[in-house]
Amino acid sequence: MTFPVSGTGSAGMEFCFVNLIEPGDEVVIGVNGVFGTRMVDVAERCGARVIKVEAPWGRIIEAEQIREAVKSCRPKLVAIVHAETSTGALTPAEEISKIAHDAGALMVLDTVTSLGGCPVRIDDWKIDAVYSGTQKCLSCPPGLSPVSLSSRAMEIATKRKKKVQSWYLDVNLLALIGGRNGSIITLRRSQ
Q: Rounded to an integer, what is the distance from CA 47 to the centroid of its chain?
């Protein structure tokens, strides 16, 4: 399911997290700058138990760090910032996505700074939830966050035990709208 969220990349981040995380879920998040730190804050507000994988600002999150972190828990998702906006560090998303999937976790990727500026292969890398922002490398006016959820992520979002804590960002409401009138909201990612 792919569509634009009305808001900045941070709205896309919150959209992905509020739809996929329920209280008590364990999540692994790479933190190597401002936006990894923001991911932690948003996940904690969703009630997640966050396992932080940290690197100094300007350094990448190494795949081996993620591999060690997922051994310590049963993560529902692994999330990283592909190109940390505050420093430009480009983290190896494809390798980390393989580790996440091997652990049974969803892979969430922030592409606010990378989409349109370097290769972002959402389907090839098996990214389950991804978001960006129009005002960076896409060179469009600010105020939209393109988001995409894989069929696996949509299944998790639709089978939640509790309602999504945000009415405005609840993908289940959007899926109902798209299902009724066949609007562009129901567009699917390539297989």
A: 16
pLDDT of the residue at 174: 83
- Beta-carbon contacts of residue 150 (< 8 Å; ≥ 6 apart): 106, 126, 127, 128, 129, 189
Q: What are phi and psi of 173, to 5 degrees?
A: -70, -40
Residue type, 107: M
Inter-residue contact 2 to 188 (CB < 8 Å): yes
- The Cα diameter of the chain in Å comes to 48
Low pLDDT (below 50) residues in the chain: 179-191
Q: What is the pLDDT of residue 182?
A: 40
With beta carbons less than 8 A apart as the criterion, state whether 166 and 11 touch: no
Within 10 A of 92 (CB to CB), how many other CB atoms are there? 16
